[in-house]
Specification:
heterodimer, A: alpha/beta, 5-stranded parallel sheet, two-stranded antiparallel sheet, about 40% helix, B: alpha/beta, 7-stranded mixed sheet, 5-stranded mixed sheet
């Protein structure tokens, strides 16, 4: 865990949140519930042996993706690491295509070629889904470079975990982002652990936290607890405005907590690298869905019945997605060599010239 | 036809493509104000300015990754590695990101990027600066790689690479930058995946790429002068995609083949070629396939020994004579 506890500060009345209609607020709640339900069902399908490889669940962190993505406009883009289901659903990818991808089916968002860590939806400004820790951080700078090159007013939300901040590629990206005034926002989702190694055991940082390392690059930064979606929106919006108006980068460190293990592989390590008491305390105090539900009820925007309906609808939606995934076909064997080369797939002259495959 | 250096030919390719397509820009260490560490981009920053010709800090993982990200949004970055040896600190970006994103996204994304620079030994700069990773790149489905040997091919392949919609990695050679050759005027494009018979012959075939083509041509001259042997020289130009047909046609004609490369032998390009030739032209071979590669050790510094470590015309002549 981290060595810091940040005081909560209400941002409910900040203009960016005050502008939300009641329906939009309930929509944010619904979107978080949908992620939670998708992840719970994914875990259960994994345990039934339906899903291969790794599964990194977003349960407990929903307010971060939902809060940030809810602020995106036409020229704003998002890219993240391997814990990507929440961001994918947040940008509007369907549960069907996401679940089918976990199943390795042809109807998956990546046609069963990427799996859990590699969801993409460029039509929704979502650029993945990246498996190598911090490997996406220079790409985020590159998307921002392209926006600037094209003279578009946009921002790139580049998510990374706290375990990514010690990779060289991230620091190289930070230097370029500041040097070239790129409108990129690095959002460190600090859930306290890089896999099984706590932040205390992995990352040296100034007193202000991980994001304060930004000062070495002359980059603006902020650190806050992200379990309140209003806070996530308000503090991220400042960074988006900076990107839009000044074409300057920002580093945000957002404290959060994952309820499950790093991946399903360490779900039984509860009394190893972190204690059961810590997990239970975090769930009780900082669950973003419970927090937002209570807030909306206090505001009179949400009632028990609507909340129950939202839960039931999410369950129905994911059950349908499981059915869709189950019934979908696996890709044909011929798909193995498709989507390797653009020119080959499109059967252009370039793609028809020379041998591209060597079996 | 005008005579240009290999360096000038590349420079013309960049200028023409910058003018043709506003999405094309050059980026790399010292490419702009310094005019290029090897002067390949000379004058381009003065002509096209900061927007199109951009100096990057020494930060290959960062700026190569940035270029790949920009290409995902449709820009056509032409990224210089001062040496391909420096690619090794950017391998995650080069392989995992540029090479895998199209596949892992089920074809939703593609990266129209060129990554280029010299990849060669023979300049007494030690092992870390003398790598020739065309075989690593060719081993990565999703990536394309070519190694021009002449000025005309350097220009034509570079222009094609910039227009291609897949990542194309172009490996040049500092020892060739000053070589001159005739370069066709006007629009000159050399397709990827098309080899070129640089010298016709009937007795034996040398298959090579990059500077090994020049070495092969010298060996062919020597064989004709000393033995009356007519050697054919096939320049692969592009490694992946690979023009298998031209190689096989030459082997079927001469029935003897020496595969030449400046790379190390283990899992080199010639290993793949040998496999294809024995499988697809076995009945046409009158002798075992011969290989001449760099001597299998890290690139040595000592200048006279380094000259020995790389294939020389005499090595090719000896290999040819073994099977003639």
């Amino acid at each position: 865990m981290t060595n810091r506890e940040l005081a909560d500060e209400s941002h409910a009345t900040d203009p960016i949140n005050a502008a939300l209609t009641a329906d939009e607020k309930v929509g944010l709640f619904r979107d978080m519930v949908r992620i939670r339900r998708f992840e719970q069902t994914s875990l259960s399908m994994y345990q039934k042996g339906k899903i291969g490889g790794f599964l990194h669940l977003y349960i407990g962190q929903e307010s971060l993706a939902i809060g940030a993505v809810s602020l995106m406009g036409e020229h704003d883009h998002v890219i993240t690491a391997y814990r990507d289901h929440g961001h994918a659903l947040a940008v509007g990818m369907s549960m069907n295509e996401c679940m089918a991808e976990l199943y390795g089916k042809a109807t998956g968002c990546s046609k069963g070629k990427g799996g859990s860590m590699h969801y993409f939806a460029p039509d929704k400004n979502f650029w993945g889904g990246h498996g190598i820790v911090a490997g996406q951080t220079p790409l985020g700078a590159g998307l921002a470079f392209a926006l600037k090159y094209r003279k578009l007013k946009g921002a790139v939300l580049c998510f990374l975990g706290d375990g990514a901040i010690n990779q060289g590629a991230f620091h190289e990206a930070l230097n370029l982002a500041s040097l070239w005034d790129l409108p990129v926002i690095y959002i460190i989702e600090n859930n306290g652990y890089s896999m099984g190694t706590s932040q205390l055991r992995s990352s040296a940082h100034p007193q202000g936290g991980l994001a304060q390392r930004a000062e070495g690059y002359g980059i603006a930064w902020d650190t806050f607890s992200g379990s309140d979606v209003y806070t996530m929106r308000a503090r991220t919006w400042k960074a988006i405005e900076r990107a839009h108006e000044e074409s300057r980068p920002t580093i945000l460190e957002v404290l959060t907590y994952r309820h499950q293990g790093h991946s399903v592989a360490d779900s039984k390590h509860k009394d190893g690298y972190r204690t059961k008491e810590e997990i239970e305390a975090q769930k009780a105090q900082n669950d973003p869905i419970v927090r937002f539900r209570n807030l909306l009820m206090e505001e009179g925007v949400l009632d028990e019945e609507t909340a129950k309906n939202i839960q039931a609808e999410a369950k129905f939606e994911v059950d349908q997605a499981v059915k869709f995934a189950e019934e979908s076909p696996f890709p044909d064997a011929s798909a193995i060599t498709e989507d390797v080369y653009y020119e080959v797939d499109k059967q252009t002259e370039s793609g028809r010239t020379g041998r591209h495959f060597f079996n | 036809m005008p005579t240009l250096t290999y360096r000038q030919a590349l420079n013309e390719a960049f200028a023409e493509e910058i003018e043709r397509d506003e999405n094309v820009f050059l980026m790399g260490e010292e490419v702009a104000q310094y005019d290029g560490a090897y002067k390949v981009t000379q004058g381009l920053w003065k002509r096209y300015g900061d927007y199109r010709v951009i100096d990057a800090p020494i930060s290959e993982a960062g700026f190569i990754g940035l270029g790949i990200g920009a290409s995902m949004l449709g820009l056509r970055p032409v990224m210089e590695l001062m040496f391909w040896s420096f690619a090794y600190v950017a391998f995650d970006q080069l392989i995992n990101n540029a090479g895998m994103i199209r596949y892992m996204s089920g074809g939703l994304i593609h990266c129209p990027i060129v990554i280029r620079g010299p990849a060669n030994g023979g300049t007494s700069v030690g092992a870390t600066h003398s790598h020739t990773p065309e075989n690593f790149i060719a081993n990565t489905p999703g990536l394309k790689v070519c190694c021009p040997a002449t000025a005309a091919d350097a220009k034509g392949l570079m222009k094609t690479a910039i227009r291609d919609n897949d990542p194309v990695y172009v490996m040049e050679n500092t020892l060739l930058y000053g070589d001159t050759g005739e370069v066709p005027e006007g629009e000159h494009l050399v397709p990827l995946g098309v080899a070129d018979v640089k010298r016709e012959g009937s007795d034996i075939t040398f298959v090579a790429h990059g500077r090994a083509v020049i070495t092969s041509l010298a060996a062919a001259e020597q064989l004709e002068a000393e033995d009356g042997t007519l050697a054919e020289v096939v320049d692969l130009r592009s490694i992946r995609p690979l023009d298998v047909d031209t190689v096989l046609a030459s082997v079927r004609k001469t029935n003897r083949v020496v595969l030449v490369e400046e790379n190390k032998p283990f899992c080199g390009v010639a290993a793949q070629l040998a496999s294809i030739i024995q499988l697809e032209a076995f009945d046409h071979l009158d002798a075992p396939v011969q290989r001449v590669s760099a001597i299998d050790a890290p690139a040595i510094y000592s200048p006279p020994l380094e000259a020995m470590q790389l294939p020389r015309p005499a090595d090719l002549v000896a290999a040819a004579r073994k099977i003639l």
